[in-house]
């Protein structure tokens, strides 16, 4: 047995047999099948004494046309160990084609030329040769899987049995020196459960699945891209698979598969926590966005931030005539600049390092480039930092937005899209309140333009959404760092929950909202299902494979609340053409009052009196009620 195993291992260690070896083997099988066919059709008499050599000569005469059929169908060009159904079909086509051609030759010749052949001889030849040639290919493939590949590969399950799952399975089985061998499939469609696919059983994703995988020695489960949502929605199964130490491989969140193109298991990567959070797929009419922005001058503030940089990448794909990117963070801005130079070599792009509060510099930018559309993402956003620095929140967020908004009106910007936050709804912290004041100013300015009180053409649109996955300062990068250091993972409260959305998805919704907005709207996004941060931390620890990392609850931070809202209690929403985007019906403010209150707040901020600054903010936004903060005394 060891000798046989060594021979098999030696053979499979080679790249492949030369094509002429496969061709010779097939020719020998055809001749042998022909001899058997003559015997079955006419008995043993034609093969006795000298008749044997005459029969052999007749078969050799037929052989060139069979070789022609094999040439036409490329039966000897493949690798036997990777034979598939397509290869078997080609063998059948080659034999049938060769038999038809040879039968035509047989009919055109006198009986004395091929005395030992009959119609039944051809039928037996094709049937026997087909079985033998198929058997050789199946045998070699089976030996490769069972005697060589299985002993050197990791056992896997595949979640999904339709196009995606089949493509993954084929890519594993046909891969030279593949690291994986398939031990089963999983599918949530009852008609497939219990059946066998490519020799392996299809299982239901129930409570017994993980035990079945563990007993089979499975170490990895591959998730078909077409089944990502159904797998992600089954959070109990996700947890049990993680608890069992089985790796989960999925298509990265930033990538998609159209269900038609070639799919390889190598395109799937070990999951990050972002891939497992329950959420609906978001579809955006990017063509309408492209029609709006193509050939236009686009200005993006905060272009080096998490949202701003992704906005820059997406807008660049629409081929604007000029892209102006502004941010005060020098190093991240340099990274954006290098990206644009590398990925969009023919795009006119300016990367400018300055603050949006520098009115003279910003005016020079507007005057020189005359943007058609402005996407305003620049803001200080860290809640605890702004609780400790309310004057900076006012001077950067509030005054900076006013600078950009006023310049947009002055230089005839068509549309101004401001990126706000769910923390602006019933704000409990300085940061959220500062963004609510920005919303008030932009909405009141739009109303003043519509009412003819301010001369201008600019349409002001505001978008609100919650946390984005992977943004600077979000909990996920923090948790990853803490886990890598052995813990503890710090969570402020066991019951705190947040909404999460991928950065690319959030930016696409911003672009679509900007496209559909007519001015004055505050668009709110459906952020999906809320996530308990403590559960998020537990799952990240499991996925990391760590066993001794603890979770430590540190208490709510200044200005933090247990849950975020998307709408004020007194507000209602109206639907739009996009199911994930709604319009908030909010209280309107007069522009004159908004300007007066903002100027009063801005002037007060230079006294750097925290309590005095926040007191005025609460007067402007009466629903601002501080939580876990020294400013509660002002309520």
Structural notes for this entry:
By secondary structure, this protein is of the alpha/beta class. The chain is 48% helix and 14% strand. It folds into 3 domains: 146 residues, no CATH class; 119 residues, 3-Layer(aba) Sandwich (Rossmann fold), CATH 3.40.50; 281 residues, NAD(P)-binding Rossmann-like Domain (Rossmann fold), CATH 3.40.50.720. It contains 22 helices and 22 strands. The strands form 5 sheets. It has a 9-stranded mixed β-sheet, sandwiched between helices. The protein has a 7-stranded mixed β-sheet with strand order 3-4-2-1-5-6-7, covered by helices on one side. Helix 13 links the parallel strand 9 and strand 10.
Question: What brief labels describe this structure?
Answer:
alpha/beta, 14% strand, 22 strands, 3 domains, Rossmann fold, nine-stranded mixed sheet, seven-stranded mixed sheet, 22 helices, 635 residues
